[in-house]
């Protein structure tokens, strides 16, 4: 069984790859081979896991240990200190294939820079309201886009029959993607679609 996760980003967002751009930017966007933005599957998986764990902690019926069943057990939560595999895998969130194909071509390459903006932030001293020395940071963000990711059962692994329904139930708990979620970046709407 497969599902498509539709990701509608409604605000600037930053899913970084851990890289910088020298003196200009402290964090740049994670990109694919064509220079197009990507939301790493491990990040999406982590957000889904967190939402499932919150549903379990809040006592939602049918969510007991579902995060570990679907996405595996974390090493820090097992007695032997070993991780346990789950039964689902999540692909990277990417642009729709028609758009990605065109932007990745020579004809659309001149529009790629329009997908990105740079935001600068600085720390302010609370005592006097003045910017703290050496605190200016530049972060590359991506404009709002629609993206998709695949969620599918790993062959040979048994998944609960209602896994798609359970994931649909927790999607409203995820309201942002990427870095800076607590500072207003990455506002998102997620929707799950069944694929055969």
Instruction: State the share of residues found in helices, binned by percent.
Output: 10-25%
Number of strands: 6
What is the general shape?
Answer: globular
Structurally, the number of domains stands at: 1
Q: Give the number of helices.
A: 4
Q: Let me know the average pLDDT.
A: 89
Largest beta-sheet details: 4 strands, antiparallel
The class by helix and strand makeup works out as alpha+beta
Strand content: 15-25%
Strand order of the largest sheet: 2-5-1-6
Order of helices and strands: EHHEHEEEHE
What does this structure look like?
This protein is 20% helix and 20% strand. With 196 residues, it is of the alpha+beta class. The strands form two sheets. It has a four-stranded antiparallel sheet with strand order 2-5-1-6. It starts with a strand and ends with a strand. The protein is built from four helices and six strands. The chain has one domain (2-195). The radius of gyration is 19 Å and the shape is globular.
Keywords:
196 residues; alpha+beta; four-stranded antiparallel β-sheet; two-stranded antiparallel sheet; 4 helices; globular
In short:
The chain is of the alpha+beta class. The protein contains 4 helices and 6 strands, in the order βααβαβββαβ. It has one domain (2-195).
What is the element layout, followed by pairings?
Blueprint: E1 2-9, H1 41-57, H2 66-71, E2 88-90, H3 97-104, E3 116-121, E4 137-142, E5 146-153, H4 163-170, E6 188-195
Antiparallel strand pairs: 1-5, 1-6, 2-5, 3-4
């Amino acid at each position: 069984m497969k599902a498509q996760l539709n990701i509608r980003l409604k605000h600037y967002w930053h899913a970084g790859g851990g890289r910088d751009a020298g003196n200009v930017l402290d964090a740049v966007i994670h990109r694919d081979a064509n220079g197009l933005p990507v939301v790493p599957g491990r990040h999406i998986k982590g957000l889904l896991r967190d939402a499932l764990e919150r549903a379990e902690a809040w006592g939602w019926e049918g969510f007991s240990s579902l995060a570990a069943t679907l996405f595996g057990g974390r090493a820090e939560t097992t007695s032997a200190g070993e991780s346990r595999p789950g039964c689902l895998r999540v692909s990277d969130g990417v642009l729709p294939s028609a758009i990605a194909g065109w932007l990745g071509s020579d004809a659309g390459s001149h529009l790629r820079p329009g997908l990105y903006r740079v935001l600068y932030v600085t720390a302010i001293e609370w005592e006097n309201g003045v910017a703290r020395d050496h605190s200016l940071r530049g972060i590359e963000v991506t404009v709002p886009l629609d993206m998709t990711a695949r969620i599918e059962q790993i062959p040979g692994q048994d998944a609960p029959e209602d896994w798609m329904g359970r994931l649909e139930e927790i999607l409203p708990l995820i309201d942002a993607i990427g870095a800076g979620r607590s500072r207003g970046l990455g506002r998102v709407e997620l929707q799950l679609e069944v694929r055969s």
